[in-house]
C-alpha cells in the first residue's frame, strides 16, 4: 500500500503533495535507522560512541515528528511544517556527520539514510508555501 494513496483519502485534500509525503516516508525510515544505529552503538560498549548514540536518538525523534506532521492536514501550521523540515535537515546532516566518524557498518548505513532523508526534506520545502502545504485545501 502507498502512503500517497492513504493521504489522498483525506477529505480536505484536493491534490496530494507528493514531495511532502515522500519526505515524511523517508523521515519515518530514517527514524528507524537512527534508533537501530544508536542501539548498535550502545552494544559496542567501548565508550567511543556516546556522542553518536545521542545524535542518533535526537535525529530519530526529530525524524519521527517530521513524518507525522508531513501526513497531516496542517493548513494553519505551514510555518511549523517548514521549520520541522528545516530541523529534520539539520538533525540528519549532524547525525550523518557523526556516524561517518565511525567505521561500523551500521553507522555507514545510518549516515547514508540521513543524507537521503535530508535531501528529500530539502526537495519538499519549496512545496510548502502560500499559506498552506501544496495539496491541502
TrEMBL record:
The lineage of its organism: Bacteria, Pseudomonadati, Pseudomonadota, Alphaproteobacteria, Sphingomonadales. CDD domains: DUF326. It comes from the Bacteria. It comes from Altericroceibacterium endophyticum. This is Four-helix bundle copper-binding protein.
